[in-house]
Every structure is written in C-alpha cells, then in structure tokens.
Amino acid sequence: MSAKYQKIYQSLLDQIESKNIKAGEYLPSENELMKQYDASRDTIRKSLNLLLQNGYIQKVVGKGSVVLDADRIAFPVSGITSFKELKQTMSGDVKTIVHELQKFPADEKMKKELYMESGDVYKIVRIRTINNEKVILDTDYLNGNVVDGITEEIANDSLYDYIEQDLGLKISFSKKEITVIPATKEEKKLLDMLDYDLLVCVKSYSYLEDATLFEYTESKHRPDKFRFVDFARRMK
Q1: Domain HTH gntR-type spans what residues (predicted)?
Q2: Pairing label, strands 171-182, 57-60
Q3: CA gap 176, 203 in Å, rounded
Q4: What is the pLDDT of residue 23?
Q5: Helix axes 4-17, 30-37, angle to 10 degrees
Q6: How confident is the model at residue 148 (pLDDT cuts 50, 70, 90)?
Q7: Among 68-72, 114-118, 153-157, which stretch is predicted with the lowest mean pLDDT?
Q8: Residue from 23, 120, 137 nearest 70 by CA
Q9: Contact predicate 131/93, CB 8 Å
Q10: CATH 3.40.1410.10 domain span(s) along the chain
C-alpha cells in the first residue's frame, strides 16, 4: 500500500495533469492541504517535495507552490533516467524512431570520449516524437567491450533495460554538461524545429557500479518543450 504522502502527491498530480489546477496557478497553502487531506505538515511537505523534484511545481518564497507548464517535459538533471522511464511521466503520444544503428572500430575521438584503447563502438541515433512532433535527438555511443549485442529492437525499447536486465550490469552514476547550441542543417532536417535555431544539449557520461565508463550521450532538445529540474540541498 502506498504511503499517505504518495497518495496525496498522486491526487495533486492528477489535478495538475487534468488542468483542474492550471499552469501559473498556486496550489492551496500547506495549512489548507493539511485540512483537505487530514494530514500532518510533514506529510504535506513530502508530497510537495515530490512534485518539486519531478518538475511539476516551483516554490515561491512568501507565495507558495506555483504549477509549472505541464506541456514542458521535466528532464531530471541529477538523476539517471532512461527515456522509457521518463515517458511514463509525459502526457500525449510519445514514440521513438531509430534513425541510425551502427557498430564500428573506435576512432580516436571515441577512444578519448569512452576511455577505450581498442574495440568497437555502437552509435545509436534516435528521434523522440511527442504528439507527432520530432523534438528530441539522442545520439548514444556505447563501449562495445562492455555492452554488446544491441539490436534495433533493443534500441527502440530501452538500452538501460537491456544493460541491467539482460546483461546483468548495474548502472551507477552519470556526469552531465548542459549547453545551448545552434542547430545544424542536419538537425533541422531531423527535428521539427519550427522557428527555433537553438537546441539544448545535454552531454552525459554514464558509469557502471565499478566506475567503468560505458556510454557517452548527446541529447538535443527543442527549447520550448522542456524544462530541466534538479533538487539541491544546502550543505554547510
């Protein structure tokens, strides 16, 4: 059975996703939510923190919790989340198109990016569509010495499911860099860019439990469709 704070979180999330509470509106105050759900302040705060961490609200000092634009997809910066997992939080029709899948001997660039001395590299280019709009371009490079046997079917489903469930490897942590870059002619052909000339690029280096670097990814996003969320705690 779900904890009470999770049930309250789901109740508030349902209201946000159904637009009963619209983007730009404030949630009821903590005191009002305590009365509404017959819950303690600590329970309400846990529910609100879940909404905050998942990118549905933003806390405004002195005003409360404002609902963010649900049409922008929350990309969790601090976590390691596969697109298959991320799409469970999205509304609308979400699909993956495998544009390219190839395996080739590591060149000097890939040896440097993946800390390889030799061996093969998988390059996988996938286009993510939301409501028939092509808005994400993911390019993954994987060390074939660590991860092998990738097929188009696997690429279309989930690389991380394959790595963890089929290969029995444990994905542990990732280093990320976020920049805004001009879209190339090729990227403009592959994505529905509308009038946008820029893309938000998230470069990720992902590691296994033993600190083996197995993947380098460039994930490029049309800027109007995404927000990037993080949860930070002040340490003294």
Answers
A1: 2-70
A2: unpaired
A3: 6
A4: 79
A5: 110
A6: very high
A7: 68-72
A8: 23
A9: yes
A10: 73-229
Distance in angstroms (rounded) separating the CA atoms of residues 136 and 97: 10
Q: Lowest mean pLDDT: which of 18-27, 65-74, 107-116, 131-140? A: 65-74
- Under DSSP, the state recorded for 19 is T
- The C-alpha torsion from 205 through 83 and 118 to 201, rounded to 10°, is -50
Residues of the chain with CATH 1.10.10.10: 4-67
Contact 171, 80 (CB under 8 A): yes
Strands 226-229 and 213-221: unpaired
DSSP assignment string, 58-98? EEETTTEEEEP-TTSEEEESSS---HHHHGGG--S-EEEEE
* Local structure of residue 27 (DSSP, 8 states): P
* Chain segment 210-225, per-residue pLDDT in tens: 999 999 999 999 887 7
- Is residue 79 very low, low, confident or very high in pLDDT (cuts 50, 70, 90)? low
pLDDT the model gives residue 94: 84
Assigned CATH class of 4-67: mainly alpha
Assign a CATH topology to domain 73-229. Chorismate lyase (3.40.1410)
Q: What is the dihedral of CA 15, 1, 171, 55, to 10 degrees?
A: 20
- pTM recorded for the entire structure: 0.68
Q: Helices 41-53 and 30-37, interaxial angle, to 10°? A: 110
